Amino acid sequence: MTDGNRTSGPQQGAEGPAAGAESGAPDPVHGPGPRALGVPDLSLVVLIGATGSGKSTFAARHFKPTEVVSSDVCRGLVSDDANDQAASGDAFEVLHFIVGKRLAAGRLTVVDATNVQAESRAQLVRLAREHDVPPVAIVLDVPEQVCAERNAARADRAGLPRRVIQRHQRELRGSVGKLAREGFRTVHVLRGEREVEGVEVVRERRFNDLRHLTGPFDVVGDVHGCRAELEALLDRLGYALARDAAGRAVDAVHPEGRTAVFVGDLVDRGPDSPGVLRLVMGMVASGHALCVSGNHENKLGRHLDGRTVRHTHGLAETVEQLAREDEAFRAGVAEFIKGLVSHYVLDGGGLVVCHAGLPEKYHGRTSGRVRSFALYGDTTGETDEFGLPVRYPWAEEYRGRAAVVYGHTPTPRAGWLNNTLCLDTGCAFGGKLTALRWPERELVDVPAERVWYAPTKPLAAEAPGGADGRPLDLGDVAGRRTVETRHMGRLAVREENAAAALEVMSRFALDPRLLPYLPPTMAPCATAEPSDEADARGEGFLEHPREAFAEYRAAGVGEVVCEEKHMGSRAVVLVCRSEAVARERFGVPDGASGAVYTRTGRPFFDDRATTERLLGRVRDCVERAGLWAELETPWLLLDAELMPWSLKATGLLRTQYAAVGAASRSVFPGALGALEAAAARGVDVASLLDRQRGRAADAAAFTDAYRRYCWRVGAADPSAAAAGSTGSAGIRLAPFQLLAVEGRSLAAVPHTEQLALIDRLLAAERALLEEAGDAAPQAAGPAADRSPLLAPTRRLVVDTEDEASVAAGVAWWLDLTADGGEGMVVKPVGALVRQPDGRLVQPGVKCRGREYLRIVYGSEYTRPENLRRLRARHLGHKRSLALREYALGLEALDRLADGEPLWRVHEAVFAVLALQSEPVDPRL
């Protein structure tokens, strides 16, 4: 080994086994060279030198303070004395702990200690290997006299015996020649003060780190020698093939600058592995493609290197095909294979391409373990009935932010699982050759021309995770959680709330694959200003729309839409164009074409048949309105109210509301009769009689308030009865917002546009019912099939800056609520709106009618003394919950639209449900 420094600079093949970067083989130490000192940007840098050699000064000059972990500092942490050698054991435990945490987080770390003893270095090399980063040694070999002078100049080291420095020097010089064998990937030796002072540390990007390349990309699955299919796929992707004089494809260029990325296994099994290699090698050489190594390339490379390998699994055919090529081509293939890395991290870290899959902890790492997993995957240690290894389902447990696209394990069709995608669709076995367009997440495939190689077992969905893999995990939701949202930052979910949500989700909620969203709670408007005169007349208000208009005006919202509030149950409707769409997009079994569920995720109906009848009507209306094509989607997610209220509140009505009404009807007639008789006898009970008459009237008003929202399902509903119809089995659905479609969240679409789309659905239903009536007025079957299901949502736009418009809004609300109507919801017309300071504006404020509120606050709440007490209600927590749940709902819709894995969507959905268990006055 010669003296001096070395800047590691191998070409692409440095990650391959031949170069030793992932196999752990050391790089040699070169002689004197340039001033640049190469250090991988993710590595463990170990400074080695005697005390006084300048390690701390060197570290401070070339690295950030947070990157350096010093043994002296760790001694001080545990003993308050940086030179207390008795504390070294504890100090190095702390040092190793900090180093491990930094490496696990993907941070370059520098260890500032003498490190002249082999056993101390061995622990650091083990740490580097545990975290799959290369260990780098930087040796500072400074003369003994220099070290002694520097120690003498330090008050805390002035008395250091000379023999300590001499021992360090002996151990250092006895170690230098062994560092590579100890496992250090790169060794830099700096002799003397001049060399130490004259170097510059240069951080080198890892060969697998291509985060700066943002695409767009076309990731191509396992080709396995199927050249004709590869050419057909590239043509379908829009690439223009370039051919040599012999007509062979040697390059392919996309007119829009897209880059192809091959997941490996270019060779074996198919009819023309040399043709595939010629094309892919040309694309890589010209910068039009990237390629990672597959296990078949690895095996072929060992064969070309003269090593003994078994000619199985198609290698024999490839060797025979290559034998017909010239020596220069075979040499080029060998060099190309040596240059293939195990995986690439692309597009800002959002895309990882490898051959057999890769857990998040290995992304961007370099070690033999990482390379082995990327090329071969992992197994359970078992074999199946065909004698093949059973793959470990790593994708079921994957929770990384980066999409992992891979191949290796043939599957009949490509499908996403937890943000991972297997693209090996068995082309050589007669399946398809598949590519992924990124970032579009669009799959493109071409069929195989024929079965080129008989598979050992039939193709089945057995890629890691599989079609039936476990999509969710308890660890995704248990304990205290923090959810990162785009519209409100990080939102916390307390452990006790998560436990309550888990109880509901696990016992009562529907299939989580059909539960992509939960609606937020609705904030009440500010309490109405008191009016003693109105209260005395019994006309006081607890809630009034002027407060809602004023709130939005203060937030800078000029236009609001007042929407009629239907007294029903909040319902979310997921409707797919067909059962096939539900199966393909949401992974649900046959027989389900969507879902209708409550705001806590429970199915509205106990039987699937009722749900499917309702979904069928909505689906027909969407089709008739032309929204499938207009919105370019095979499914819709709608927010709605389902009526009657009694449909889901029967138990509440019987045990609470009806019981109160029955008690009042039983008690008041007798009480009033007795008081009236007493008054007739001349007893002075006038005041008491008036009071009891008022209470009886309030009780009657209470009963009237809830009765108007209740009717028997299957009988006539109020609106249908007036028209002489039996109603749509008594069920009415009032949709008021389209939440999402394929690839797009609609939460920011203005409410006026939303309601216009809803109106088209209602018009479509009217047309469908008219056609059904004209075609078969006497047709057999339930009349409910020909009665309306969809209910309109009346609305009024109000200018919050215009007093006349505000007055019109108040008058409209008074008309809505005069006979007991629930009231209205006031929303910004612009839907997703922020205040000038960037905070979210409440998405909606409910303003409930005076008579309706008897259901909430009791029959006598309008009495002046009760109103005065109720006006002291505290709204802050409820309004905070409404905003947090709204932000989480938006996040769920965004993740759904982005095609993120189910666990990511459900992270936000579950958080909404958890927040609903926070204690708050239920009357708000």
UniProtKB/TrEMBL annotation:
Residues 1-36 are annotated as: Disordered. It comes from the Bacteria. Keywords: Kinase, Transferase. Gene3D superfamilies: 3.60.21.10, DNA ligase/mRNA capping enzyme, P-loop containing nucleotide triphosphate hydrolases. InterPro entries: Ap4A_hydrolase, Calcineurin-like_PHP, Metallo-depent_PP-like, MPP_PrpE-like, P-loop_NTPase, PNKP_bac, PNKP_ligase_dom. PANTHER family: BIS(5'-NUCLEOSYL)-TETRAPHOSPHATASE PRPE [ASYMMETRICAL], METALLOPHOSPHOESTERASE. SUPFAM superfamilies: DNA ligase/mRNA capping enzyme, catalytic domain, Metallo-dependent phosphatases, P-loop containing nucleoside triphosphate hydrolases. Pfam families: AAA_33, Metallophos, PNKP_ligase. This is Polynucleotide kinase-phosphatase. Residues 216-411 form the Calcineurin-like phosphoesterase domain. Transmembrane segments: none annotated. NCBIfam families: bacter_Pnkp.
